[in-house]
Design a protein that fits this description.
single chain; alpha/beta; Udp-n-acetylmuramoylalanyl-d-glutamate--2,6- Diaminopimelate Ligase, Chain: A, domain 1; Protein-Tyrosine Phosphatase, Chain A; 3 domains; 11-stranded mixed sheet; 6-stranded mixed sheet; 15 helices; 31% helix
Length: 488
């Protein structure tokens, strides 16, 4: 592909005539520069790609995309853009021949529920005979493989690369979790999504390394609805009206409120032996009954979101019913069946909103005790720790405080912050910093009728400590514990 083709949707200036070279790749990491590539200088929190531009030219880069003029070797003149990260999005889309145009694209944004909803949508589409891929928190799922990623929404080059792979493998749909940070820096710029979903929002990702304040967080989430054709909004969320204001997409709604276009008329909570889930009757755009194999009121919201999106895609209710009955999302209200006497669930809940939602909704299943096992991530907002400690102390019968991804902090310091919130309540708690030992304690001390919630790790199969990732898959850990204690 020629340089002129790659730049066709970018606004740029250049002090010399552009050499319309054949481009081998698009690179934004100077360590990966190859001859004939375009090197894009990205300005990050800790490094500036402009510092590596000269080295990229010496390694054979055919062109440099930058935000400012600079002297470069071999007479190379940079191509100047206003925002190099946004330019990377447009350049990458062109380089991979605009794969989003060959797919029905579905973008999900919200504080919680995105991953569950994305897999519900994928399962429904596949029950209807449609191939679908996912880009999100649990990685990338094309038709043929699973790729682990480190961000909910990868960099724009990777997004376009994965969309191309999906299209080439015969996928007709792509479901993407779009984070507020990705919207803020323009990783999805240049994609006009067919459908956008707003699930909910609460203060999260606010801090030194994330959003500076809640207002910025809200504004970034809202960007999605200026780059999609149809929007589906959870009308029960207090920020729904704000999200719908000035939206350029057509508007559809779901929720429990009477004015919702798709509404839950009845929800019943089912817990029978090994099964735990809900039975839901809907009215409005889709009027039917659904048995959903995940527990809690929030499951009703997630299921409505998936029903609403797939209805807009033209899918019938039978595939919806089949998929939702059998739904299993790793680390999302995942039922680990080790006993008929108590329930053990793994969930990714790692913020105050998620924790409060789960602890509140699981009360509807009338547990003997609600046991909440959790920690908090290191090098993240301390407010989150205070809030989660207070919520667990107030809503759980027993809190087991332990490690999560402590990163570069001491786990005991993190637990001390959690206890600041916990001590505002009269909640019973124990502190067991070793997460495996904490899980063992929860199993060995379980009582008949208990619901035990292992919160925070979810789908993750590691613990991050001092810059290293150590294997830690809670499903495997539980299996090992049961073997160690001779569980029958």
């Amino acid at each position: 592909m020629r340089l002129s083709e790659i730049l066709e949707k970018c606004e740029y200036t250049c002090k010399s005539e552009i050499n319309d070279a054949e481009i081998s790749d698009v690179i934004y990491d100077s360590r990966k520069v190859v001859p004939g590539c375009v090197f894009v200088c990205l300005v990050g929190a800790s490094s500036d790609g402009h510092a590596y531009a000269a080295d990229a030219v010496l390694k054979g880069a055919a062109a440099i995309i930058a935000e400012r003029e600079m002297d470069l070797p071999d007479g190379c003149v940079p191509i100047i853009v206003e925002n190099s990260r946004q330019a990377l999005s447009y350049i990458s889309a062109a380089f991979f021949r605009y794969p989003a145009d060959e797919l029905t694209t579905i973008a999900l944004t919200g504080t919680k529920g995105k991953t569950t909803i994305s897999f519900m949508i994928k399962d429904i589409l596949e029950k209807a005979g449609k191939k679908a891929g996912i880009i999100g928190t649990m990685g990338v799922f094309t038709d043929k493989r699973h790729i682990e990623t480190h961000n909910t929404t990868p960099e724009s080059y990777e997004i376009q690369k994965y969309l191309r792979e999906m299209a080439d493998e015969g996928c007709k749909y792509a479901v993407m979790e779009v984070s507020s940070q990705a919207l803020m820096v323009g990783r999805t710029a240049g994609i006009v999504f067919d459908f956008g979903l707003f699930s909910n929002i609460s203060p999260d990702h606010i801090g030194e390394n994330e959003h500076k304040d809640y207002g910025e967080y809200l504004r970034c989430k809202k960007i999605l609805f200026s780059q999609c054709r149809q929007g589906l909004f959870n009308i029960d969320d207090k920020h729904a009206e704000y999200m719908m204001e000035d939206a350029t997409c057509s508007i559809h709604t779901y929720g429990f409120r009477p004015e919702a276009g798709l509404r839950a008329a009845e929800v019943h909570y089912l817990r029978d032996g090994g099964f735990i889930g809900i039975k839901m009757r809907t009215e409005g755009t889709v009027a039917d009954e659904f048995l959903v194999g995940m527990p809690g009121k929030f499951t009703a919201y997630n299921a409505m979101a998936a029903i609403g999106i797939t209805f807009l895609c033209g899918i019938d209710t039978l595939p919806m019913k089949e998929a939702l009955h059998d739904v299993l999302v790793t680390g999302r209200m995942e039922n680990v069946r080790i006993s008929d006497k108590f329930t053990l669930l793994i969930d990714y809940a790692h913020n105050a909103m998620s924790m409060e939602s789960i602890l509140t909704t699981m009360r509807d299943y009338n547990p003997k005790r609600m046991v909440s096992l959790f920690g908090c991530g290191g090098n993240r907002s301390k407010l989150r720790r205070f809030e989660m400690g207070e919520i667990s102390g107030r809503l759980a019968d027993l809190s087991i405080l332990t490690a999560d991804n402590s990163r570069f902090e001491d786990v005991n310091d993190i637990i001390a912050d959690i206890l600041t919130g916990m001590h505002k309540t009269n909640g019973e708690y124990v502190v067991i910093p070793d997460r495996k030992e904490a899980i063992k304690y929860s199993i060995q001390n379980a009582r008949e009728g208990d619901i035990i919630l292992l919160l925070g790790k979810g789908h993750e199969d590691y613990q991050e400590i001092k810059g290293e990732r150590y294997p830690f898959d809670e499903r495997v850990v539980i299996k090992d514990i049961l073997e160690e204690i001779g569980w029958q």
